[in-house]
Design brief:
It is found in: Mitochondrion. This protein is about 40% helix and about 15% strand. It is built from 17 helices and 19 strands. The structure holds 2-acetamido-2-deoxy-beta-D-glucopyranose (2 copies).
Length: about 500
């Protein structure tokens, strides 16, 4: 096998020399017509590993795997493979490595920063066929899943156990995809983001090496054994390796849950309340901010009738006694900040309706301007800076006549402007682009970050440099060069 590959590569080199294309981009194995023979041989090697059904070159399927839910344009890979187990992932990676083909991991395609586009062609690894929940340790509150398991899939698997996995980015994303982007969402204020909830990862490197970041099978609640490689791979966005297994922390389902909605006379009052609730040590499960434009959009989209004012959606988890205490303190605080009385959602149906309104924010925003596209900004700042940045950002939106309802995980200092724009209008696209850069720089100036939970992907690489500075970037590049010296893992992203 190796021999055939070696010959194919030699043959390819000769072809390159003969056609004078040695200086062209180096990933041209798949560009017809010159290397048709090599292309066919590579495809049959991939097929020998993943089976005929596991290797697809159809245009529609490639396009489906060349984009996520962002506005970044589709960049289809040359081929999509569907491995069924880690051995296949490793064998396929070896083939790619041998031929210097880019490797792009793909979960559910629900990312928001263009992370899956095949900028330099190559092989997309769709991991959705690996969808088994492997080891559930109820008594230890942890579980190990394959990369195709989604968060909703895991929670329905856990249904009768009294346990759940709380990280909830909205979309029904795959858990390894969520680990790769360091996703979070509305529950993070209480339960943390993916960073706090991954205990171990099985990783396949670009050359096919398989290893576990915390040692095979290990899942202690704490450790001080060496560097934290798990954390290195959380948020690496497919640029260091493929995640083929994740061991995750689980939580006991709360005994009771109650949600409430509260409106405020100003953004400042809503955010001040959030800060004070957290300072008072209330273990609030969710505290979500919606500005007047966002709540108006949600009202229209879901036929609701909340007052069109800055609003907080809150949720409390705990025993009934603890709930009572949490709610009393929170009500005192919101009242002091001129908040309205709470409108309660106690039964499951009303609660589901309330959080559906929050989760539909994206579609509600889009419905403000039918036919337009949406782009979500994603900055995060220290809590105390939140009122100022939101107030300045709203002013910026108005001054520049932009539609950008604001929804935020304010308990974490993280908020989104859902920019609704006409992608056919270059002048508007430019204004939105300039606005988002100003917003990111405003966050950096306030000691914050250009991305709280969506990742760097394609569009935020320059901002990442500004955020970290050249020395930290050099360290990152050094790590990348060690783990992926041929720069095959999701090239063109993050760094
Ligand atoms: C290592 O990183 C993982 C993933 O971010 C995290 O869950 C874990 O708590 C960290 N371990 C230690 C000992 O800090
Ligand atoms: C503001 O933008 C809208 C489109 O979103 C446009 O119809 C309107 O004319 C603009 N107003 C001004 C003052 O530019």
């Amino acid at each position: 096998m190796t021999c055939v590959w070696f010959r194919a590569t030699l043959h390819l080199c000769r072809l390159r020399l003969a056609s004078g294309c040695g200086t062209r981009r180096k990933y041209d194995l798949f560009s017809p017509p010159v290397q048709n023979g090599a292309r066919e041989r590579t495809l049959s090697a991939l097929r020998a590993v993943a089976g005929d059904e596991g290797v697809c070159v159809g245009a529609a399927l490639r396009e489906q795997h060349g984009r996520d839910e962002s506005v970044h344009r589709c960049r289809p890979p040359d081929v999509v493979v569907f491995p069924r187990c880690v051995e296949e992932v490793s064998a396929l990676a070896k083939i790619c490595h041998h031929h210097r083909l880019p490797i792009i991991p793909f979960g559910t395609g629900t990312g928001l920063e263009g992370g899956v586009g095949a900028l330099k062609g190559g092989v997309c690894f769709s991991l959705r066929k690996m969808d088994q929940v492997l080891d559930l340790h109820q008594e230890d509150f942890d579980v190990t899943v394959e990369p195709g398991v989604t968060r909703k899939g895991l929670n329905s698997y856990l249904r009768d156990t009294g346990l759940w996995f709380p990280v909830d980015p909205g979309a029904d994303a795959s858990l390894c995809g969520m680990a790769a982007t360091s996703a979070s969402g509305t529950n993070a204020v209480r339960y943390g983001t993916m960073r706090e909830n991954v205990l171990n990862l099985e990783v396949v490197l670009a050359d096919g090496t398989v290893f576990c970041t915390a040692g095979r099978g290990r899942r202690p609640r704490k450790t001080s054994a060496g560097y934290n490689l798990t954390n290195l791979f959380v948020g690496s966005e497919g640029t260091l390796g493929l995640l083929t297994k994740a061991t995750l922390r689980l939580y006991g389902l709360p005994e009771s849950t109650v949600s409430a909605v509260c409106s405020f006379p100003s953004v400042q009052a809503a955010v001040d309340s959030t800060v004070q609730v957290l300072q008072a040590g209330v273990p609030i499960a969710r505290i979500e901010f919606l500005d007047d434009v966002m709540i108006d959009a949600c009202n229209r989209f879901n036929s609701l009738s909340y007052p069109i004012m800055p609003t907080l959606f809150l949720e409390f988890h705990g025993s009934s006694r603890s709930l009572e205490e949490q709610v009393t303190i929170t009500e005192e605080i919101t009242r002091e900040n001129s908040g309205s009385d709470f409108s309660w959602a106690e039964d499951e149906e009303t609660r589901a309706q309330l959080w559906k309104a929050r989760h539909d924010a994206w579609y509600a925003a889009l419905a403000l301007r039918p036919g337009c596209k949406a782009y979500s900004t994603d900055v995060c700042v220290p809590l105390s800076r939140l009122p100022q940045i939101i107030v300045e950002t709203k002013q910026d939106l108005i001054t520049n006549n932009l539609t950008g309802p604001i929804a935020g995980h304010v308990g974490d200092g993280n908020f989104h402007c859902i920019m609704v724009l006409n992608p056919e209008d270059p002048e508007e696209v430019k204004r939105v682009h300039e606005f988002t850069e100003r917003l990111a720089r405003r966050a950096l100036a306030m000691d914050g970050t250009c991305t709280g939970e969506h990742g760097v992907g394609l569009g935020k690489r320059a901002l990442l440099r500004e955020e970290l500075g050249p020395l930290a970037m050099e360290v990152m590049q050094g790590l990348k060069a060690t783990l992926d010296p041929k720069n095959l893992m999701n090239p063109g992203k993050v760094l």
